[in-house]
Amino acid sequence: MWGVRALLVVNPQATSTTAAGRDVLTKALASELKLDVLQTRYRGHAAEGTAAAVRDGVELVVALGGDGTVNEVVNGLLADQTGTTAPARPDPYATAMLAVVPGGSANVFARALQMPRDPVEATGHVLTALAERRQRMVGLGHADDRWFTFNAGMGWDADVVAAVERARAQGHEASPGRYAMTALGQYLAQLRRPPSMTVHLPGADALGGVKLAFVSNTDPWTYLSGRAVRTNPRSSFGSGLGLFALRSLGPRTIAAVLREILSSDGDPHGRHVVRHDAVPLVRITSDVPLALQLDGDHLGERTDVEFLSVPAALRVVV
Fold first, then answer.
1. How many CA atoms lie within 13 A of 231 on its CB side?
2. Cys-Cys with 33: which of 6, 128, 235, 317 at CB 3.0–4.6 Å?
3. Range list of β-strands (E), the chain
4. Which residues lie in coiled coils (predicted)?
5. What was the pLDDT predicted at 86?
6. Domains of the chain (ranges plus CATH)?
7. Which residues contact 131 (CB under 8 A, 6 or more apart)?
8. 8 A C-beta contact, residue 233 and residue 242
9. CB 287: neighbour CB atoms within 10 A?
10. pLDDT in tens, 147-180
């Protein structure tokens, strides 16, 4: 592996690592790679630094952080190849490879790749995979001029993400308990003023009256206190997108759905549940602006979003 040029993108605010631990991981990688290190300082820094490194000829980018760091690195990896507005299928061999060392709270992308959850073990896993030339092609989602790796949504979940981001800006921890309480508060608000979306799928009639819409690029949709939340259990990085939608936010519907998506073999269904797997494209429209999130990052409000599946978009060290 000597001579492989690599960039380590470190989020110093990562919740499951310490400064001392990050220093150990950095030294381990530097012992085997020609390594530069970028410590992110602001939102978008990881994407900017990754894009610049790719232009400079870096062959591997290692993301040490949570899913937000991974998302920014992925967008940086593909920025110069496809631009910010063209969701055309990129050439995965025309950019650097990605490796992930989980350092956040959920680490959905890393866990979907079956990476070790411990950062030290994950670093060793990456170095072994590089020595053995192990890699896989990963499909991505694209929406609102951005790439996403595991999930996206409009409405309730995006409002929760926005509220938690505001709390974090005020110095509060983004703990599972905070997410749960925020989700309850946002649910009560949505119950009083239910949104209405229309879902458009290729070759199907438009489906109106949708109150909640999740889009998955893999399974599970996310994790809550270590427990998988499964909306589309047949989704995977190479199968296209999964759609999970509800036509009612009534308490009975929500209670039943929560039981199913939190069960170990989660396979939600029911009268108000809409499920589609392996679709190439999902378009969601609304008469009023609704919150949008990609990979847990709130992007503001939109009335019309197209979610596209892009197969084999990226090479990932596994």
1. 26
2. 6
3. 5-10, 34-39, 60-65, 97-102, 135-143, 146-148, 151-154, 197-200, 207-210, 212-216, 222-224, 227-229, 241-246, 273-279, 281-294, 297-317
4. none
5. 47
6. 5-133 (3.40.50.10330), 151-309 (2.60.200.40)
7. 1
8. no
9. 10
10. 999 999 998 889 888 888 888 778 877 777 787 8
The backbone torsions φ and ψ at residue 78, rounded to the nearest 5 degrees and listed phi first, read -100, 0
Question: Does pTM top 0.85 for this prediction?
Answer: yes
Q: How many CA atoms lie within 13 A of 10 on its CB side?
A: 21
Flag the least confident range among 2-6, 70-74, 299-303, 310-314. 2-6
Reduce the DSSP state of residue 7 to 3 states and report it: strand
Burial of 271 (0-12, 13-18, 19+ CB in 10 A): exposed
pLDDT tens track for 217-234: 999 999 988 899 999 999
Residues 6+ apart with CB under 8 A from 233: 219, 220, 265, 266, 267
For residue 80, which of 58, 64, 99 has the smallest C-alpha distance? 58
